[in-house]
Write a structure and sequence with these properties.
The chain is built from 3 helices and 12 strands, in the order αβαβββββββββαββ. By secondary structure, it is an alpha+beta fold. It has a single domain, classed as Sandwich (Immunoglobulin-like), CATH 2.60.40.3880. The chain starts with a helix and ends with a strand.
Length: 163
């Protein structure tokens, strides 16, 4: 059994780890919190092509950044709740970016509209330091986006049509 002081230290450590993180629950609330929590001086922009797509069709993204950093791209579902980590992924894990314009997806993988019909969003985050990929993916599956340390963020909508 743990002593009270050990439990207090564990609780304090957990609280300190959460300080400086952007976290919120599901959908547009998640995106809003991430965008408002951006602290980096880095400027990031995100554009999607096409802006209107049928569910299941491929999308392309262009991310521009003024500073180097680690890119994380999330897809917020049209259901208003689901969040998925799109990039980095098992096929393409090279997420360190130099300043400039970058296109996704790169060869070997696809970004697709997940449906149902409606408006969904993509959120691009460029973090100053590399994130724990397993932890942020697990949080995304819970409908959360969590980034530790300074970061810049941008969001772009996509209208999904029935196939």
């Amino acid at each position: 059994m743990r002593s009270r002081s050990a439990l207090a230290v564990a609780a304090l450590s957990g609280a300190l780890l959460l300080a400086g993180c952007a976290t919120t629950a599901g959908g547009l609330g998640t995106a809003d919190s991430v965008l408002r929590g951006a602290t980096a001086t880095n400027s990031v922009s995100l554009s999607l092509t096409p802006g209107e797509v049928k569910t299941g069709e491929q999308l392309w993204a262009e991310v521009s950044t003024t500073d180097a950093g680690y890119l994380y791209v999330y897809q917020l579902g049209t259901d208003g709740k689901s969040v998925g980590l799109v990039f980095p992924n098992a096929i393409d894990a090279a997420n360190y970016l130099a300043p400039g314009r970058h296109k996704l997806p790169r060869p070997g993988w696809r970004m697709t509209a997940r449906g149902p019909a409606g408006v969904g969003y993509f959120v691009a985050v460029v973090a100053a330091r590399q994130q724990d990929l397993l932890a942020i993916d697990a949080r995304a599956r819970q409908g959360l986006i969590e980034i530790e340390g300074p970061y810049a963020a941008a969001m772009s909508p996509v209208r999904e049509l029935a196939p």
